[in-house]
Amino acid sequence: MYSSFVPPRQVKIGDAAAFVGITPRAIRHYHEIGLLPEPERGSDDRRRYGYDDMIRLLWIRRMADAGIALDDIRDALADKASREDSGGPGGPAAPDTSADGDGDIEGVLARLEESLVAQEAELRRQRVAVQRMRAEGSRVGLLSDFVTGRLKDLPEGSLRQADLDSLLVTERIFGPLGAAVQAGRFIALATHPDLQAESDRVDAAEEALDDTVAVDDPRVARVAAERHAFEEALQAVIEESGLAEGDDALFDSWDALHPATAEESGTGAGGSADREPGSMSAFEAIGKMPYDFSPARLRCMELAAELAADALGRE
Asked: d(Cα 146, Cα 156) in Å, to the nearest integer?
């Protein structure tokens, strides 16, 4: 084994639920109503979830969080010819108005008011999410406004589904700031067709390093060198186009919108101040997100990282 940490190719239902931020019971319910296809099962007859399953679960959660009914989500995902999702905000849960044992009616009223305020805030959040989906397109609009704000100047259709999937995963792990920074990469690719074509070629070469390719196959080192050369070319374009300065502005904007507390001071992208409420650390999240990488492809990634580190050391 070449790496001290190898991401899993498939995970159990508990890890899948933890990564997405839902419960195993919810995932089982998705299977029961046909919202999520049954995955493969391991030798122990337990469900195993791969990358595509997790992508679908993340989209389902975002749609449900926006107030879209599960039946509508199922219909939208089943309609491959349509790229628009429909739905409306769900009704708020009834507030808990049970009194304390001491009959403190004032305390009950205070908690009731807090519950109503929370429901109003949630309804506003859902309305904003639905408005953003209508304005940006159903899937783009499910990303946070901090991310979509950086993508607003791109021509319609510039981002591909794989780009959106990548931003979705990045936002789940590193938060809106991390995804907004990554968006600069897709902006550069969308505005430079030759670079996009080279990206597609290198991606295809990496995908060809499947389980039939040995880790010491010469193709592994060759593709790693191609990946390194491409990343250097992409970074040069990012620097020349001013997107790097845009990253600096993103950090300043994020700090202005989210002043760090004493405990959060010093955390960067992916720190506790950047992640979604209730989410796990970046390290925990990466360990629960399956990627279908063969040993040869993992070795290729390691070699590319080594080439990047060597180049950085020579600067």
From this structure: 18
Euclidean distance between CA atoms 122 and 118, whole angstroms: 6
Beta strands in the chain (DSSP E): none
Q: Please give the angle made by the CA atoms of 263, 15 and 32, to the nearest 5 degrees.
A: 130
Helix pair angle (24-32, 13-20), 10° resolution: 100
Q: Which residues contact residue 286 at a Cβ distance below 8 angstroms, ignoring those fewer than 6 apart?
A: 7, 173
First to last CA, the chain: 30
Which two tokens mark 104? 């403190």
Token code pair at residue 97: 């108005």
* 11 strand-pairing partners: 49
Q: Which helix (H) or strand (E) holds 132?
A: helix 105-136
Helix axes 24-32, 51-65, angle to 10 degrees: 90
**pLDDT digits 0-9 by tens, 93-132:** 333 433 343 344 465 557 667 877 888 888 887 787 777 6
